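User: Hey, quick favor. My workstation is busy. Could you predict this chain's structure for me?
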Amino acid sequence: MAEPLPLDVAATLNALLTGSGQVSSALRAQLPYARAVGRCGCGCGCGCGCGCATVDVAVDHTAVPPAPAHGNPAADAWYAEPEDAGVMVFTKDGYLSLLETYSASSEPISTWREPRFVER
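Assistant: No problem, here it is.
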């Protein structure tokens, strides 16, 4: 079931898509029409839901045009804290599709870090 983007997810996407480029601008314009449609299934295996914060995103294609052609990830960055973590945004057919967080340590990033820690 689709739900509005959580505020921390929207803030992270906004931080990743800063800039005046055509692709960033087009993807930022999709944010009001984006919804969270799934979560990452990774985790410890106990069923407690302590997996990573990665979220699948869907955009209403009738409300906003796709971004111009670009590569994937469309944007990526490291976090200043924790230093061993990063975040990437992926698209499909010009529309936001995935906001992924990852860690170089064995512990998943289970919550979104404050956007001020995003280092592009």
